Amino acid sequence: QVQLVESGGGLVQAGGSLRLSCAASGRTFSSSAMGWFRQAPGKDREAVAAISRGGGRTYYADSVKGRFTISRDNAKNMVYLQMNSLKPEDTAVYYCAADTTYGRRVYEYDYWGQGTQVTVSS
């Protein structure tokens, strides 16, 4: 079992920045690939970014490339999502997820946090 708790969401103006954090506990964090997903009202949950267990591989959705950065600190059992140049279309609930394998699809992840709201005003 892995427990995940997100934090760092909030309201920000377009062009601003936020950093989301995800604290993991339970199974050894360093053995888990991690992902950030988001879900806007009326839309399916989608992958935003993912990072492999050691941090050597990363994935970004085309919509966030060059603006978002995923990172992890295995010593602190933390994963982060730095979000810059935010746009109104980034508004969504953001979820942290964990699994043993590195992937970018919702069904590939077994463990999920409760989500944190990000709202970007125009």
What structural category do the secondary elements indicate?
A: mainly beta
Separation of termini? 40 Å
Number of DSSP strands?
Answer: 11
Average pLDDT works out at 95
Q: How would a textbook summarize the main sheet?
A: 7 strands, mixed
Radius of gyration: 13 Å
Helix count, per DSSP?
A: 0
Poorly predicted runs are: none
Helix content: under 10%
Overall 3D form: globular
Listing every helix as H and every strand as E from the N terminus to the C terminus, the arrangement reads: EEEEEEEEEEE
DSSP strand content: over 45%
Write a structural description.
- The termini are far apart.
- This protein has no helices and 11 strands.
- Strands 2, 4, 5, 6, 9, 10 and 11 form a 7-stranded mixed β-sheet that branches.
- It has strands at 2-7, 10-13, 18-26, 33-39, 46-51, 58-60, 68-73, 78-83, 92-99, 111-112, 116-121.
- It is mainly β and 122 residues long.
- A hairpin with a 4-residue loop joins β7 and β8.
